[in-house]
Write a structure and sequence with these properties.
By secondary structure, this protein is α/β, with parallel strands linked by helices. It is built from nine helices and eight strands. Helix 4 runs parallel beside helix 5. Bound molecules: BIS(adenosine)-5'-pentaphosphate.
Amino acid sequence: MVNVILLGPPGAGKGTQAKRLVDGRGMVQLSTGDMLREARSSGTGMGRRVAQVMDRGELVTDDIVIGLIEEKLTHARGAGFIFDGFPRTLPQADALGRLLDKVGQRLDAVIEMQVDDAALVARITGRVTCGVCGAVYHDRTHPTRQPGVCDVCGSTDLRRRADDNEASLRQRLMEYYKKTSPLIGYYYAKGQLTTVDGLAEVEVVAEAVRRVLDKG
Ligand code: AP5
């Protein structure tokens, strides 16, 4: 059982790699972005407030996301957890350490996926996601085999995320550099950080991730 954090800016490929680990190893993907999108589609007052924050490209408050992760950590079962988009602040990182202790687990690795800003803009503005199974595509680099139809589940419900525009992405990048990038030093100091080249082909990145997990 291996528990890993995928750390990187918006569009680094965290979700893409997490889905491969779920399929290949039976690990459990804990994506706070997906959990928050689920909350926003619930239409509750909390969901509406979360939607406004996400669309501006800002971070949702620590107590909300820590609560979401705590709930999943207590109930989900699988061959290890992939933390995708969590933690994103130092208080979230401290909370994750405490939560893992509480459930008798440990963090085995933190993988930083490095991608330069120009590539992130191209990736985010071309991203398309299946509204039914969550498969992720890209207009140019990874289109569906049949236009408008998901390769995995056959759904025609292919969507662009509300926050996948240049203005929101710029804010998301600022949030990343200000609040999330300090985690690189935090985990480096603990001896848990490995950096991979997120600009490489999806399969090459996947191989680098596999090597880290097999060592862990
Ligand atoms: P979240 O959903 O976590 O978004 P994000 O971190 O901005 O990351 P993305 O999902 O945009 O990118 P990704 O790295 O998963 O890339 P992907 O694999 O899809 O968070 C959204 C919002 O929720 C935040 O802004 C915030 O408001 C809130 N939030 C979430 N967590 C929070 C937290 N912990 N605290 C507070 N607020 C929180 O790939 C992108 C594209 O690139 C795809 O089209 C893909 O096909 C393509 N691609 C992937 N890999 C490659 C490759 N190697 N080569 C070429 N193309 C590639």
